[in-house]
Backbone:
């Protein structure tokens, strides 16, 4: 599938003359490691969109409660349509009445590496997603360490569980969604982006 084909569901849901979201037409320069981003999105319901760069697009999951750093906590992650690479640093307001209408901020961004093992071999991210079991190591501003994705239901929108792996970055005492609510790019909260207010500067 070409990048254009992969982004078709994304493009069909949006009118780019009406939304500030990117259309996916401009190329992005490749960094050494693939990127990940988690966008906090206040739409009909507040949720966190977790996206992983895979072959030139952002594979995406909506995580209603956001990620946890506690390995005993399982979080639902619902697969959504691939997004264009330029979406990674999108932050702003999506106009009312349109798909996903609401406010988006970049909650975390960084690079990741695929650590999925299958019989001592590293499985490619695409194969891992196909097989329904993906392990990644995140190097974000907020999230670090191993995270595991396990698909438990295949349907129009596949359902996965997102779980922090047991490693030195696990921290059951910290709930990053609560302790670090704002944008890693601008420092703004959803409310500040929504009202167009910038934080007080001295
Ligand atoms: Mn969303």
Residues:
């Amino acid at each position: 599938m070409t990048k254009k084909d992969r982004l078709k569901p994304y493009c069909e849901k949006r009118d780019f003359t009406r939304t500030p979201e990117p259309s996916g037409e401009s190329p992005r320069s490749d960094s050494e490691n693939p990127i990940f981003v988690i966008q906090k999105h206040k739409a009909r319901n507040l949720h966190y969109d977790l996206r992983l760069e895979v072959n030139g697009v952002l594979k995406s999951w909506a995580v209603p409660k956001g990620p946890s750093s506690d390995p005993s906590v399982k979080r639902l992650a619902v697969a959504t349509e691939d997004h264009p690479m330029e979406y990674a640093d999108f932050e702003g307001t999506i106009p009312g009445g349109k798909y996903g209408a609401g406010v988006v901020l970049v909650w975390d961004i960084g690079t990741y590496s695929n650590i999925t093992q299958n019989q001592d071999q590293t499985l490619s991210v695409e194969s891992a997603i196909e097989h329904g079991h993906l392990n990644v190591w995140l190097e974000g501003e907020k999230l670090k360490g191993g995270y595991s994705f396990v698909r438990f239901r295949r349907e129009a929108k596949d359902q996965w569980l997102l779980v922090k792996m047991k490693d030195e970055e696990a921290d059951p005492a910290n709930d990053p969604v609560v302790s670090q609510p704002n944008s890693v790019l601008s420092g703004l909260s959803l409310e500040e982006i929504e009202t167009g207010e910038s934080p007080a500067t001295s």
In short: The chain has a mean pLDDT of 92. The chain has five helices and eleven strands.
